Amino acid sequence: QQQHEDLSAKKLRLTKPSKSAALHVDLCKATSPADALQYLLQFARKPVEVESVEGVVRILLEHYYKENDASVRLKIASLLGLLSKTAGFSPDCIMDDAINTLQNEKSHQVLAQLLDTLLVIGTKLTENPSVRMRLVEVACKHLTDSSHGVRNKCLQLIGCLGPVEKGVAKEVESQAAKDVQKIIGDHFNDQDPRVRTAAIKAMLQLHERGLKLQQAIYSQACKLLADDYEQVRSAAVQLIWVLSQLYPESIVPIPSSNEEIRLVDDAFGKICHMVSDGSWVVRVQAAKLLGSMQQVSSHFLEQTLDKKLMSDLRRKRTAHERAKELYSSGEFSSGRKWGDDAPKEEIDTGAVNLIESGACGAFVHGLEDEMYEVRIAAVEALCMLAQSSPSFAEKCLDFLVDMFNDEIEEVRLQSIHTMRKISNNITLREDQLDTVLAVLEDSSRDIREALHELLCCTNVSTKEGIHLALVELLKNLTKYPTDRESIWKCLKFLGSRHPTLVLPLVPELLSTHPFFDTPEPDMDDPACI
Amino acid sequence: MPEIKVTPLGAGQDVGRSCILVSIAGKNVMLDCGMHMGYNDDRRFPDFSYITQNGRLTDFLDCVIISHFHLDHCGALPYFSEMVGYDGPIYMTHPTKAICPILLEDYRKITVDKKGETNFFTSQMIKDCMKKVVAVHLHQTVQVDEELEIKAYYAGHVLGAAMFQIKVGCESVVYTGDYNMTPDRHLGAAWIDKCRPDLLISESTYATTIRDSKRCRERDFLKKVHETVERGGKVLIPVFALGRAQELCILLETFWERMNLKAPIYFSTGLTEKANHYYKLFITWTNQKIRKTFVQRNMFEFKHIKAFDRAFADNPGPMVVFATPGMLHAGQSLQIFRKWAGNEKNMVIMPGYCVQGTVGHKILSGQRKLEMEGRQILEVKMQVEYMSFSAHADAKGIMQLIRQAEPRNVLLVHGEAKKMEFLKQKIEQEFHVSCYMPANGETTTIFTNPSIPVDISLGLLKRETAIGLLPDVKKPKLMHGTLIMKDNSFRLVSPEQALKELGLAEHQLRFTCRVHIQDPRKEHETVLRVYNHLKG
C-alpha cells in the first residue's frame, strides 16, 4: 500500500512537481484530523492550474476513502466541488468516483456536500444528457434521506439538472426520473420547511430552464400559501405567479361555490391576500409580483383600491368618492360634518365579504404598511399596472397623490417618479393638484426636482389649476432660488402642454408682472428673463 | 373533557371596564382591571365579589394581566389590589408600568379633589399597587408558576399595548386587549405568530366598520389645519393626553418642518410633557421610521411644539393648540374653546369619539348655541370638524388577526352587542370556528382537546421512521413501542428498553390448542402429512 502511494506520488511528481505532490505529502504527514483539515484549508487558498487539477483530485479522493473523520471528508468533498469549477477542466472523470463515494457515505453533512459537488459537476456538463440523467437518478435515490440537508441538495440538483425537453430519451426517463415535476411536487408536503422551500425553488428553477410546469401544481401551490414558514410562503407566491403567467386563461373553480374564474384572476386574488401576510418579507414579495400581472381583469384590479367600506352593516362611501362628489357639486372647500359619513344605502349583510375576495383593498393595505420596503414595492406595482391600464391609472391617482405625504423620503420620491411615468394616462383634478403642489415646498431638493419633472408632463383639467400651479411654482422660485433652471424648464413645458388653458390667463399674467410671461406657449426661450 | 371557562366582569358586549376572568387547566387569570367612563357609582368598577364570595382573591387568582395603560383597562387596579386585597403578581409591559401610575394619579385627582369623593383609593395605594407589578418584555415568556406561562405580543394601539398569550401545558388563550392592524405615525401594527390558541379573546370596537385609507384622513386633517392657519385663524384640537395626541403631534411637526411654517403649536398640561418623556424613552416600541431616525433626531423631541400657557390663548395671530381633555367637557380645552368659539376664522377639530352629553358631542351634532354654567349662552361661530383617528382594528383587521393566529375558538369582547353579532356571524362563516360573545357575568365554557406530549426514545424513532419510505406529514403513522406512564410523564420506548427499565424478564406467551384428528393411518404418518400440509 505504502509503496503504491509512493509510486503514484512519484509519478505525479514527475509530471507536475508542485501542488499535488506537496498536498499529498502534507496529508500523509497529518496525524490528526485537525491537522489534515489545516492542510486542506491552506491548500484551498491557493489557486490550482488546469493541468494539475486532475492529479489533485485523484489524491483527494484517495484520502477521502481512507479518512475516518467526517469533517475532513466534508472538506475534501467541498474541495472537489471547487476544483471541478476550474475553467477548462472536464469533470466527467471524477463523476463516477463521486457517485461511488456517495453510496458508502454515512454522514449526512458529507452526503449533502457530495451532492453539492455533483451539482457543480452537472452544471459543467449540461450538454451531456446521459450524465444529467444519471445524476438525477442518484438524487432521486437520496431523496428519502432523513436529513433535511441532503434532501435539500437533492431537490436543488433535480431542479438544476432535471430533463427539460420532453420526449428525449423517453425510455430512460421512464425509470427513475420519470416525472421530475411529480417527484418535486411530492416534496411540497415534506415535514421540514427548508425542504419544502427547496422543492418550490427547484420547481422555479425548472421553469427558468424552460420546462413548462403542469397546471396541476397550482392547487398544491395554493395550499402552500398557508404554510407556517415565511420562506415557504414567499417561494409559493413566486410559484403561483409563474403559473398565472403560464396559464392565465384557464379556468379554476372557486371552492365553496360552483362558480369558476380565470386562473390569473384567482392567482391575483391570492397574491393580493398575501399583501396582508404576517411577515414583511412575504408582503414585499407579493406586492412586487402584483405589478407584473397585467392580464388580470379590470374589475379585480379595481377592487384592490377599495376595502369595501361598510359601516353599521351598510355601505359607506370612501373619502375619495366623497372628495370627488364634493368637487363635482362645486362646494369644494366645505368641511365635513360630524356624522357626515353616516351610511346611506342599505347593503345586504350576506353580500359583504370581509376577506373572501382577497383582492379587496390589497393596495390600500400595501400603501399604508408599516415597513417602507412594502410601501415602495406597492408603489412600483401600482405604477406598472397603471401603465397598462388607463382606467386603473385614473383610479389609483388619489392613492398615489396621498403617497406624496409619506414619512420616508424614498417613498415620496418613488411615488413622484411613478406618477410621472403614468402621466400620459391621467389628468389631475384641482384638489389633487393642490396636494401635489404642496410637495413643492419640500425641503429636499431631489423631491422638488422630481416634482418639477412630473409637472412637465402632467395634464391639468382646468384653468384655475394651471393658475394655481403657476403661482405655486413662482412662489417656489423665490423660496429656493437654486431651483431656477428646473422651474423654468417646468414652466415652459407646462405652458406648451396646455396652450388653451394658458391663453385666457395671458393678459392677467402679463399685467401682473413682466417676467410672468415665461409660461406663454409661444415663448420658447424662458431663459431670457 | 378539559375546558376553558371565560367570564367577563366588564366589557362583555360593552365598551369600558374591561375585566375578564379566564380559568384554564385549573389556573385562574384575570385579564385587565378597568373602570367605566360612563358611571360614577359602584358600577364603574368590576364586581370583584363575584370572583370569590368570601375567600381571599390572592388564593383564587394566579395572576393579573394588564394589556395597556388606558383607564378602561387598568383604572380599577389600585381599588382591586389595595382596597379589595390582592397580593399576587400583576403583569404589564414596561411602558405600561411607567405610564399607568401617572394616569391613575390623574384619575384619582379628578375624582377625589375635583368631585370631592371619599372612599376612593389614595396616592399611596397607587404606589403600593405598582410595587406588585412585574414588567415583561415583548415576546418574553414568563413562567408565572411551574405550569402557567404568559407571553406578550406587540399590539399597536398605544405605546406599550400588548396582546398576551396565556399557556398551560398544551392549552392556550390569547387576549388581544385593544389592538390596531394599521400602523400609524408613531406605532407599528399588531403582530402575532401562528400560535394556534384554543381561544382568542378579541376586542371588537369596530366590528362592522371597514375604514378607508388612513392617508385620506391625514391629508384632510393637515389641509384643514393649514388653511385655517394661513387665514390667520386659531385651531383647537382637544385630545386626551396620551395616544392620539402624540400621533397628531408628529403629523403636524413633520408637516410644519416640510412646509417651513412658522405659526406656533402649543401643547397643554404638564401631564403630557411627562408622557412625551416616556415616548422618547421607549423608542423600541414605536414604528420603523421613528426607530430608524431616532439616532439623528428623536421624533418626540418636537421642535415646533411648545408648552402652552394660559395667557397664550389671547395672543393675536394664528396658532394650533392641543388641549386636554378630549371631549371638551371640562378643563383647559373647554376654557380655550369658550374664548375662541366666537370667531368664525377659528376651528376646532375633534379627533375622537365623544360621549353623549359633553360639549364635544353637542357641537358635533350641529348645535350652535350652547348653554354654559351660569345661564350664559355661548354662540359657536368657529368651524367644527370631526376626524376619526381611533387606533382600533377595523373589521378587516380583526379578521386578519384571526387569520394570522389561527385560533380554534374566538370570543368577542369590548364592543356593542349588535355589531358583535354581525362579526360573529362573519367569523363563523369565514373560518369555520365557533365564536362566542358573552355578556357581563355570563360564563362561556369551551371544551378543548389538548394533545398529550409523549417523549419518544431516539433509537425507536429512527428505527420506525426508517421503515416507512417517504415521511408524509399529513398521515398518522403506525408505530410499535411501549408506553411507560411514570411520574406524571409519558414515554414511548422500545419493548426491550422498557423491560430493562422496569426490571422485568421477557415472557413469551405461547398459545396451543388441541385438535382431534380422525385418521386411520399410523401416528407418525399423520404427523408427517399434517407437517407437509402446513409446509405447503
TrEMBL record, chain A:
Any GO BP annotation: snRNA processing
Family in the record: Belongs to the Integrator subunit 4 family.
Subcellular location: Cytoplasm; Nucleus
Name this protein carries in UniProt: Integrator complex subunit 4
InterPro entries xref list: ARM-like, ARM-type_fold
Entry keyword set: Cytoplasm, Nucleus, Repeat
SUPFAM superfamilies for the chain: ARM repeat
Superkingdom: Eukaryota
GO cellular component: cytoplasm; integrator complex
Main localisation: cytoplasm
Automatic annotation (TrEMBL), chain B:
Compartmental location: Cytoplasm; Nucleus
Origin superkingdom: Eukaryota
Chief subcellular location: cytoplasm
Keywords: Cytoplasm, Hydrolase, Metal-binding, Nucleus, Zinc
MF terms (GO), sorted A to Z: hydrolase activity; metal ion binding; RNA endonuclease activity
Cofactor(s) demanded: Zn(2+)
Ribonucleoprotein keyword on record: no
Positions of the Metallo-beta-lactamase domain: 16-233
A Pfam family annotated for this UniProt entry: Lactamase_B_6
Gene Ontology cellular-component terms listed: cytoplasm; nucleus
Stretches assigned to the Beta-Casp domain: 245-363
InterPro entries: Beta_Casp, INTS11-like_MBL-fold, IntS11_C, MBL, Metallo-B-lactamas, RibonucZ/Hydroxyglut_hydro, RMMBL
GO biological process: snRNA processing
Family membership noted in the UniProt record: Belongs to the metallo-beta-lactamase superfamily. RNA-metabolizing metallo-beta-lactamase-like family. INTS11 subfamily.
Identification of the protein by name: Integrator complex subunit 11
Keyword Nucleus set for record: yes
